[in-house]
Design a protein that fits this description.
The complex is a heterodimer of chains A (236) and B (109).
Chain A (H helix, E strand, L loop, with lengths): L5 H12 L3 H17 L4 H11 L2 H12 L4 H12 L1 H13 L4 H9 L3 H13 L5 H12 L3 H15 L11 H10 L6 H16 L7 H25 L1
Helix pairs in contact in A: 1-9, 2-4, 2-10, 3-10, 4-5, 6-8, 8-9, 12-13
Chain B lengths: L4 H26 L6 H7 L2 H15 L10 H17 L2 H18 L2
Helix pairs in contact in B: 4-5
The chains are: A mainly alpha (236), B mainly alpha (109).
């Protein structure tokens, strides 16, 4: 890569991460507001934001707890939403696996969608980067994202208490999830998986303990994987 | 409303811990071993398998209307989905969906 100066590597990561400010700020605000509306106080909201730093899973947990789903189901579902991060973790090993242990401990805590997307793309495009440069780039890309996630969750939590119910913010949760998944409909298998998920959950709504959702998720994953294989076989 | 604070704290702590372990897994412990293809193939669809199912009942039977199908909310959901698919922009989709909801509520009284 052209810049070998550690500072410039860090700041080129920062520049690559900064467009996500537009996503993180409203999303963090919304989480703060929704959490407050669901009955969480500031300490609870911020503890969740600091400990989990995964918006979709946090919304999932809040939404299921509001429906009084059993704790086990809340955890299972929210962790399933985060399973994609196991893929990120695996994908980063060839690039960052030789970084010092404590650095990896820290990088794991901050492994959010946006940082992964930015850093992984850069690593694939620039194989000549050293491990050190890759680490600097990673943290650079986090800088415009993570602090804003904390700050605006807090702003949302404080502001949330003052928003009256006429604004139908109950519906901000489903809208947010739709907005998060719609861009993920990249291919036919993704679309079929989503369709199976919706149909099966609605059909299995009578199953106790919100287990219908878990069953539906399994069916949907199998459907996605099967369609993918079917398309691959047809293409060859 | 979430009133059971013990459960809430259990969820906050265990979700934080579990999420961390997922993030740490390969990078921290498992190292260079790769996941088998069939596992990766299913993992690719986890998000689109869980999230749509999670919201489907909230869209069809919203609590705010006592569990009755609400045309305004249903239309807003479809509009948000349409904007999201075509613009690939999460924020535009959220804002568009909420504007559609307010607009429909205004029109339908």
């Amino acid at each position: 890569m052209p810049q070998t100066n550690p500072k410039s590597v860090f700041w080129s990561g920062f520049r690559a991460g900064s467009p996500f400010i537009l996503v993180v700020v409203p999303f963090a605000l919304l989480f703060g507001v929704i959490a407050t509306k669901a009955g969480l106080n500031i300490v609870e909201t911020m503890s969740m934001t600091f400990l989990v730093i995964a918006g979709a899973a946090q919304f999932t947990a809040i939404s299921l707890m509001q429906e009084h789903a059993p704790t086990f189901i809340v955890l299972l579902t929210a962790l399933a939403v985060n399973l994609r991060m196991a893929m990120y973790s695996a994908a980063l090993v060839p690039h960052l696996g030789r970084a010092p242990f404590f650095v990896r401990v820290l990088m794991a805590y901050f492994m959010v969608d946006q940082a992964f997307a930015v850093a992984f793309q850069k690593y694939e495009a620039s194989p000549e980067m050293t491990v050190n440069q890759k680490v600097l780039y990673y943290f650079g890309s986090l800088l415009p994202i993570i602090p804003l996630w904390y700050i605006f969750s807090y702003v949302g939590a404080v502001a949330g208490a003052t928003i009256p119910p006429e604004y139908s913010l109950d519906f901000a949760i489903p809208i947010t999830f739709i907005a998060l998944t719609a861009p993920a409909m990249r291919s036919l298998p993704h679309f079929i998986a989503a369709l199976v998920s919706v149909a099966a959950t609605l059909a299995l709504i009578w199953v106790p303990y919100n287990l219908g959702l878990i069953i539906a998720a399994f069916l949907a994953m199998i459907a996605g994987a099967q369609v993918e294989q079917w398309l691959a076989r047809r293409a060859t | 409303m979430i009133t059971d604070k013990t459960t809430l704290w259990i969820v906050i702590v265990l979700l934080g811990l579990g999420t961390y372990l997922i993030r740490f897994s390969f990078l921290g412990l498992i190292g260079n071993r790769t996941l088998p293809d069939w596992v990766l193939r299913h993992l690719r669809y986890v998000a689109v398998a869980v999230l749509p199912g999670l919201i489907a009942p909230l869209v069809v039977w919203p609590q705010a209307t006592g569990g009755h199908l609400d045309p305004a909310r249903l239309a807003a959901a479809f509009i948000a989905f349409g904007i999201g698919i075509f613009s690939k922009n999460t924020v535009a989709s959220i804002i568009g969906g909420m504007i559609a909801l307010y607009g429909m509520q205004f029109l339908l009284g």
